[in-house]
Specification:
InterPro entries: ABC_Transporter_SBP, ABC_transptr_periplasmic_BD, Vit_B12_bind_prot. This protein is an alpha/beta fold and 312 residues long. The protein has 13 helices and 12 strands. It folds into 2 domains: 127 residues, Nitrogenase molybdenum iron protein domain (Rossmann fold); 124 residues, Rossmann fold.
Length: 312
């Protein structure tokens, strides 16, 4: 849906803007509302969701949805979020509806106008989501974005649902501009560097290989991935040592003093990243949550691998 979907949404935004201009007695948002609803839109599972009017009471089941909704300016409409939600900080005070498993009864008792779910939970939460549908509670399953383009699509799509197409376009424009700026800075560095990213500590070290969102970030930044397999997989210390990455990126924070612990692992003293003091801890949320903050994660990786590009 990518390119055509965004074009269609931008056309909708343009139409709404023209309508706003013609009626000077209405606020921009009110003018948009006059033709926006009722709205029928197909979600990631193929269900057609009907939204009769702008949602005023929203439940979000995953942090990336919550962050996007907050960026769209509708945070005050959130009445329930997951236990994992922590950004922006203000969402910590919103009622929680569960973490890995959701309290369907509590969601029902909240009487939301709309529930934003996610494709990653579509199978595991299928029974609960169908229960909400059977009770007439609209539930929209957001697509699992696998790259930046699909992330832009989901932001635009949620903007349409919440009648915030203009704001969604502004967010996407800002993100694309920042990505281009980061890439230009990285291009100023003459030599390509390699990096290894780990998401868990030993003895079970996991990394991101090809066909992952991390790989796309590496490609955008001209970083050679030291991981040679596809997907997320467990890797041995011996394989990491053999790959000899220029930079080691630590994408977890559950172990105190993890940077020094990584440097002291058996055999790691021969790795270029350790010898040159280039073991860096990064924010897992900005890299794994497909929300507007994704560009912050891209910038953090770029600064960790090519720090000199950002000192000018």
């Amino acid at each position: 849906m990518s390119a055509l979907f965004i074009v269609a949404l931008l056309m909708l935004t343009a139409c709404n803007t023209s309508q706003t201009t013609d009626n000077k007695n209405e606020s921009p948002q009110t003018a948009e509302q006059t033709k926006h609803y009722p709205l029928k839109i197909k979600d990631a599972t193929g269900h057609t969701v009907e939204i009769k009017e702008e949602p005023q009471k929203i439940v979000s089941l995953i942090p990336s949805n919550t962050e996007t909704l907050a960026a769209l300016g509708v945070e005050k409409k959130l009445i329930g979020v997951s236990d994992l939600d922590d950004y922006p900080a203000s969402v910590k005070t919103i009622d929680k509806i569960g973490g890995m498993e959701f309290n369907i009864e509590k969601i029902i008792s909240m009487k939301p106008d709309l529930v934003f779910a996610h494709e990653t939970m579509a199978k595991s939460s299928q029974t609960g989501m169908q229960q909400l549908r059977d009770l007439g509670i609209p539930i929209f399953v957001v697509q699992e974005a696998r790259n930046f383009i699909e992330t832009y699509d989901t932001i635009m799509e949620m903007g349409v649902i919440m009648n915030r197409t203009t704001k969604a376009k502004a967010i996407v424009d800002e993100m694309t501009a920042k990505v281009e700026d980061i890439q230009k800075k990285v291009e100023s560095v003459n030599s390509q560097r390699s990096a290894f990213i780990e998401t868990s500590d030993e003895p079970e070290i996991y990394t991101a290989g090809h066909d992952t969102f991390v790989q796309e970030m590496f490609d955008l930044l001209s970083i050679k991935n030291s991981a040679t397999k596809s997907g997320w997989y467990q890797i041995s210390s011996e394989a990491i040592i053999k790959s000899d990455p220029d930079v080691i990126l630590i994408m977890h924070d559950s172990v105190p003093g993890i940077i020094e612990q990584v440097k002291k692992r058996h055999g790691f003293q021969t790795i270029s990243a350790v010898k040159n003091n280039r073991v860096v801890q990064i924010n897992a949320d900005t890299i794994s949550r497909t929300s507007p903050r994704l560009v912050d994660g891209l910038e953090e990786i770029a600064k960790a691998v090519y720090p000199e590009a950002f000192k000018k």
